[in-house]
Amino acid sequence: MKFIPRQPREGINVSDTHPLVEAGTLVAGLTLIFVFIALLLIFLVEIALYFIPVEKEVALFEDWLPEDLITVSPADERLHQAQLLVDRLAFHWADAPYTFRVEIDDSDVANAMALPGGLIIVTEGLLDQVESENELAFVLGHELGHFRNRDHLRALGRGIVLSLFLATTMGNDVSSISVTVTDLTLRGFSRQQESSADEFGLALVYTHYGHVDEAWRLFEKWDNDDRIMPGVVSYTSTHPDAGDRVEKLKDQALREGWPIEGLITGLKW
Amino acid sequence: MESTFYQVLELVLNFGLPFLLLLVAYIVGTMLEKGHFRSIRKRESEYATFPVVTFDTMPDDWSASSSTLVSGSVVISLDYFKRVIAGLRAIVGGRIKTYEPLLERARREAMLRMIEDARRDGYDAIFNVRLETSRLANSRRDGKGTAGVEMLAFGTAVKFASRFARAQ
Ligand SMILES: [Zn+2]
Known about the structure:
The complex is a heterodimer of chains A (269) and B (168).
Chain A: H1 19-51, H2 54-61, H3 77-91, E1 101-105, E2 112-115, E3 119-123, H4 124-129, H5 133-149, H6 151-169, H7 181-186, H8 191-209, H9 217-228, H10 234-238, H11 242-256
Parallel strand pairs in A: 1-3
Antiparallel strand pairs in A: 2-3
Helix pairs in contact in A: 1-6, 3-5, 5-8, 8-11, 9-11
Chain B: H1 2-46, E1 64-77, H2 80-92, H3 100-120, E2 125-137, E3 146-160, H4 163-166
Antiparallel strand pairs in B: 1-3, 2-3
Helix pairs in contact in B: 1-2, 1-3
The complex binds zinc ion.
Zinc ion (ZN) is lined by residues 142, 146, 189, 194, 197, 239 of chain A.
């Protein structure tokens, strides 16, 4: 038998697609797919919100607390006062469908959040910085604004979308993502949602006190701090553009003719 | 706004660095691959007349005076670029085109090393050639990642009884 020398033929086992073309096709294609899925999911979230009435939401999350929450003692006077303040503010929100619950989280970073079922969490770090009831009232009123627009559920839906997206792009197993409802709710409040919640909060503050003095004092402070050491103020990482928001709040007060000076109510603790 | 500077910095660190790494991996990886293929082709044409067959018994018209086991093995690592593209490919499935040249190189290099192994000891031909491949797990915690592939070629090398016998 004759042995016929022959060199391996090129182009049989290796596709002649240029690696960069392959990369480009994949990136473009996958981006399109993800954008489509994300839009679809966001749309589904909106539909779900339409079909999940607040009563159902409240019933589902009635007794729910985030797992990683470290609450202060139920006898804490600040908890009592904050709950009272929320109740008084909510009184000015005609037929509010929620029964609001306030919890204080034992955390040094100043933050406040609106969670499913009418749960409002403020951190000790925030309470430490608050110097008057008026300031606190605006922070709480702002969170009430999120409830009115149901931003907290929207954020939940979008948070899930984002987590799925990150999980697949980072190559993780989708089943292995563990995110808490709290994490999800805190992600992705849009600038518009914040402004809208601000407007609502300020209106509540005005209705309650008859003026808006000190409503945004905390924001001015955080805006300054943020300029000096960006990223240190936690509230500004979930609630961006403190400075911007102060301007908008001032505009709103001016437009509505709400007095920006008035009697400051002290804290009762 | 000073904070914009930090945001940009963060963006650069989060996305710029991996992208730069990807670019470097692509350029260096492509250069190395091209170089390897050049070397493979050069050696293949050098050994083109050396008989290498896959029959599991020695062809009848070969008359051997001695035989031995020869083998050639090579371990080639993926570059970061290939790995990333393959990762993207894994989402939708399909041919992992960036891995094809990698395995092609491994196959041909292993064969060449096997031939070199045989020639160094003066053998004249190899029959019953087999190829085997295995995956090297890398040190990632879950042990799932792949550090590279090993390709092993082995066969039975023979010395012909007379120079004449080789003329075929
Ligand atoms: Zn907010």
